[in-house]
Amino acid sequence: MLLQRLLLLATLWVAAPVWAENTSSTIYSDVEQSVYQVRVINQQTGKKNAIGSAFVVMDANIIATNYHVVSTYINNPEGDFALDYLSTSGETGPLELLAVDVIHDLAVLKADKPLGKPLQIVPVPPKGARLYSLGNPMDKGFSIVEGTNNGVMKSSDDSNILFSGSLNPGMSGGPTLNDNKEVVGVNVATSGNGMSYLVPAEHLSTMLEHLQQADFKANDAVSQQITEQLRNHADKYAQRLQTMQWKIERTGSFMVPTDIEGTTRCWDNSEQPSPDDLMRSYFTQCGNESSIYLDEGLEVGTLSYEYIWFDADKLIPARFYRQYEIKNVSVSASEAGKQDVTNWNCFTDFTVVAEQEFKMTVCRRDYHHYAGLSDLLVTAALVGHPKQGMLFNLDMTGTTFASGMALLQRMLGDFKWQP
Amino acid sequence: MATMILEIQARGLHHYQRLERFPVRVGRALDNDVILSDTSVSAHHLRLEQDEAGQVFIQNLSSENGTRLNGHSLGKEAALAPIPSQLLLGNRRLRLVSVETPVENTYMSRCSSVFAPLCKPRWALSLLLLTVVALLGNDYLAIALQKEPLFYVSGLLPSLLWLLFWALLVGGMTRLLTHRWDFAPALSVVSLFTLIPLILQEMGGWLDYFFTSDKPSTWLLVGGVDFLLLPVLLYTYLHWVLSQKRLPALGIALVLSALPLGIRAISLLDQVTLENEFSSEPYYNQTLSSLNIHANAALPLDEYVQKATAALPPQRSP
């Protein structure tokens, strides 16, 4: 693995075309004045707690970055933290938080003096276009990274741009530019090996337009704004899912909703049977593979659901149901802790889905700091069939309870019994 | 002169000495009339005399451990002993009673009717067999893999060894009390101690599913198995098999179960404390039953959703 990576580096170094370096260097020198480092400073120690990159946009004293860069500041409203900027020439000064878009991981800040020339925002260019990403990776100094635009992701529903270039921590919030030095996206994440993600800059435009109407006044209730954004998003998201076309596929004797094109994907996670096994299980696991970052260790907006079908022709019912009962356990994938959520509250009863009887449990827990936002965990076990079983688990984080239940009903409505 | 009886109290069986001719000398030396081979008794410890009226006087001769008459320590002079009287010579307890003292009713075995299985060897073996079948069945149900019969037998052996070990222990303790080997009751009681939890566990599972609640099995297992089973079985054994009186039987049963019960109480307390803590895992009734017998009828989905929504209101943050 290490060898591979080294080879890749060497190739790039040798093969990197000369014209690209030229473009990179002109771009860098042209926009250098507009790129900053944003820092979250702990007032108690005077040291930086988090860093990210930012760029001047729309107005000379307005800069944009990621929500996650400044999340420590937002999540500790007691005034323990402060925001400031650092320019490429080493100048620093305080920043004021104007607004955030937690769904798209964006934040807009204001400096007390003009910072530089605002960069222009343009729509996402065609796939294959050269892009240049700027930022301050690992606090090692301002850098420019070249890569290719691979378009807005189709398979996942967070609609980020896939950027084939190496983004590193610290570059978050920095701009990604086209050849004309216009902002296409905002650096947001990487999954390593040159797979990086950008927030389309259009989302930032929308935010800035709203701010311009408000004359760039700071939103007093940022946390309330975040809560509203999350609730709206959760409701809209659940509604959208309900109206979408779900693939209906067979799981044992059931036809169940599985993938939604461009939103959720399913994988088979069945265990390979061993020769001694007396029962077989078929495990389909689906999820939206996206999430909204709120705080360290706290992400919401995940949706996952799974179907496990059990065939136990070789077992007497009492023996099968012992195993079935052991498998009837559901846990949430969320890492939310005591500081974030209440304890689970569950309701269990029998219900009928597709003329079949299920023992179904709905569990709910609520967020302390985001009123109206809940995690929902549903688990349903097919009962009344002595040698067959099915478990359906649904795990939604950061949804509203009503939307979650509506989505549950929509999904269960698609169940068909076809032995 | 009236004949008196001197009861020498010893573990197991008391000895009775008929006192026909007075004075009677009591002590450890072999020239006494009543010889007590107890090292806390002096060589010449006590002298009993009787006057014309039949009253008994006791004179303490021991300067070592002394004598107590009905709880009062005696000096050198003779003291009148009422009938009956308690005597303590050193550490040895004696009782001075008249010949007319009534004796307790003859003990008759209580191992009858409901408690017959506790004493009859055939019943004891049947209980053991039932326990073995239950253990095997439990193992068989718990494993969903193709296994040779020997696999289950080897799984059973440790439990069987434990059963026999405890039966021997209980039987041995009984031997100390009754002076005879009575293995059947011990085997019965130990078998019941293994069998009852298995039955209650199975029953608890059905009831949990029936009521869609974990309470039945919690009560049966925590209340029944963890806290009641041991003292109840001990009491049953002491009262009906060893024919101890009710109160002493209860006392011994409680004393013997105090340690295990205490340990369980501590772990129960821990559990209760943990339940009030934050947990990232939901807690709900997960039981499933192949018989599928439940009290609540299955609801149409709409009704289910309504009920769930009503049952899960927003939780207030602390």
From TrEMBL, chain B:
InterPro entries (UniProt xref): FHA_dom, SMAD_FHA_dom_sf
Chain ranges passing through the membrane: 123-143, 149-169, 181-199, 219-238, 250-269
CDD domains: FHA (cd00060)
Keyword terms, alphabetized: Membrane, Transmembrane, Transmembrane helix
Database matches in SMART domains: FHA (SM00240)
Pfam families: FHA
Domain FHA: from-to ranges: 24-74
Name of the protein in its database record: FHA domain-containing protein
